[in-house]
Amino acid sequence: MKYWLVKTESEVYSWKQFCEAGMAVWDGVRNYQARNFLLQMQIGDEVLFYHSGKEKKIKGIAKVIRCAYPDPTIEDERWVAVDLTPLRSFEKEITLKEIRAEKRLKEILLLKQSRLSVMPIEKNHYDLICLMAK
């Protein structure tokens, strides 16, 4: 299993909307590096759901339920989507400020490539974030 982080602005698509829907097509990614990460996702991989924009918080954990397929929002075979389902909300949402303050998280892509909307997370970083969320 691999671990990932996806970003969305809460004003565009919130964790609450995602949980209410029970599933989401993760589409609209138009960055080649992020697209390549979508292509690597496998069913069962776990995904941290991050609100960018005003909130800047990890809200909970989702799971990949369908691997990459053509993005239904565009007629261009270069772009793909995956399907996600919510697993659980964090008891304590983790802010970007807390992530920056945690020295053991200094190497995550969220801090190094802040504009990237889909990124891998190392298992030890994933585990630490989940621990921080309790």
Question: How would you characterize the overall build of this protein?
Answer:
There is one protein chain. 27% of the residues lie in helices and 38% in strands. With 134 residues, it is an alpha+beta fold. It has a single domain (3-132), classed as ph1033 like fold, CATH 3.10.590. The protein has a six-stranded mixed beta sheet. The mean pLDDT is 97.
Q: What is the average per-residue confidence, as pLDDT, rounded to a whole number?
A: 97
CATH architecture: Roll
What structural class do you assign from the helix and strand content?
Answer: alpha+beta
Shape: globular
* Low-pLDDT residue spans: none
Alpha-carbon distance between the two ends: 22 Å
How many domains? The number is 1
Q: Approximately how much beta-strand content do the residues carry?
A: 35-45%
Q: What name does the CATH topology carry?
A: ph1033 like fold
Strand element count = 6
Instruction: Calculate Rg over CA atoms.
Output: 14 Å
- Number of helices, where a helix is a run of at least 4 consecutive DSSP H or I residues: 5
Helix content: 25-40%
Strand order, largest beta sheet? 2-5-4-3-1-6
The H-and-E topology, N to C, reads as EHEHEEEHHEH
Biggest sheet features: 6 strands, mixed
Q: Identify the CATH class.
A: Alpha Beta
Oligomeric description of these chains = single chain
Find the CATH superfamily. ph1033 like domains
